[in-house]
Design a protein that fits this description.
Elements (H helix, E strand, L loop, with lengths): L1 H25 L2 E8 L3 E7 L21 E7 L7 H18 L3
Antiparallel strand pairs: 1-2, 2-3
Length: 102
């Protein structure tokens, strides 16, 4: 009986971890580690689709593409916030300059 109880508790734990991951992925956040409680975090989230960087509501790429933003900073950072849009526009400009060949 103890084995069955332990097994069910393990399944419940695994199921709850899956629910947490899917809830975070719905916001575009793939992982979030709070380094200083309430102020400083390490987050990974899907990059913004380049075609929507100029729109009022930018959309994120599918996380399966592997294009991920690695962010260190405030814990309240939004993957589609103004700061991230600006950073990714700047990154696209630099990428164009570096990839351009005559």
């Amino acid at each position: 009986m103890k084995i069955v109880t332990s097994f069910l508790a393990g399944l419940l734990l695994i199921g709850s971890l899956g629910a947490i991951n899917s809830a975070m992925a719905a916001d575009g956040i793939l992982s979030k580690d709070e380094l200083t409680p309430g102020s400083y975090c390490h987050e990974k989230f899907a990059a913004i689709q380049p075609s929507t960087l100029g729109d009022d509501q930018p959309t994120l790429k599918d996380s399966s593409t592997g294009d991920v933003t690695d962010f260190y900073g405030p814990c309240d950072e939004s993957p589609t916030g103004k700061d991230q849009v600006w950073e990714q526009k700047l990154d696209d400009e630099h990428r164009f300059e570096n990839d351009y060949e005559d």
